[in-house]
Amino acid sequence: MNPNVQALNRARASLSDIQRPGRAEVEAAVRTIIRWTGEDPDRDGLRETPARVTRAFEEFFSGYGQDPVEILRKTFEEIEGYDEMIVLRGIRFESHCEHHMAPIVGQAWVAYIPNGRVVGISKLARVVDVYARRLQIQEKMTAQIANTINDVLEPQGVGVIIKASHHCMTTRGVHKPDSDLVTSRMLGCFRDNALTRQEFLGMAT
């Protein structure tokens, strides 16, 4: 097995070892936050909010319970020698920053050049979602997506570009609502070949 895939599996195992609190504990924590704001968690409009927030968090952070390596395992080799760039553009995602738990909303462009096998295109979008539905910083998320595709598919190269708006700076702090952050990760021929990299960058603008 690819040693990098083994490392991904070890990381998955370490996540599964974390002791997760029960639903009642999470709901109690939300009630505490509501009281901290100065509100009454027992008034009609807020009585069910702790349960709603807990269900929302289960969706927001469902990526911890999914395995990106398994998502990419099923591939197709009957590709008639296809060895040109494959690009899935504008993959919308919602994530949350690990510093403020504020939303990160953006799009990802994912590309690779196959080396004898391809993966279903929906799997690329699912890998983006798995990493987005965790507490994140954009730089790490960009690298995780590219590294996982590279390690599992072993293509000629991988490119990932992410453009996102971070609510931790658009709705609080410095309040810059029109700004977005762009990050990229280029591996293999996307890093080594300027023409390949430029072709991909042209598709993502």
Index terms:
single chain; 205 residues; alpha+beta; GTP Cyclohydrolase I, Chain A, domain 1; GTP Cyclohydrolase I, domain 2; 2 domains; 5-stranded mixed β-sheet; 9 helices; 7 strands; nucleotide-binding
What does this structure look like?
With 205 residues, the protein is α+β, with helices and mostly antiparallel strands. The chain folds into two domains: 3-61, GTP Cyclohydrolase I, Chain A, domain 1 (Orthogonal Bundle), CATH 1.10.286; 69-204, GTP cyclohydrolase I, C-terminal domain/NADPH-dependent 7-cyano-7-deazaguanine reductase, N-terminal domain (GTP Cyclohydrolase I, domain 2, 2-Layer Sandwich), CATH 3.30.1130.10. 45% of the residues lie in helices and 23% in strands. It contains nine helices and seven strands; from the N terminus they run ααααββββαβαβαβαα. It has helices spanning 3-16, 23-37, 49-60, 68-73, 121-132, 138-153, 167-170, 189-192, 194-203; strands at residues 75-76, 86-97, 103-113, 118-119, 135-136, 157-166, 181-188. Strands 5-2-3-6-7 form a five-stranded mixed beta sheet, sandwiched between helices. Strands 1-4 form a two-stranded antiparallel sheet. A hairpin with a 5-residue loop joins β2 (86-97) and β3. The chain is globular, with a radius of gyration of 20 Å. The two termini are 36 Å apart.
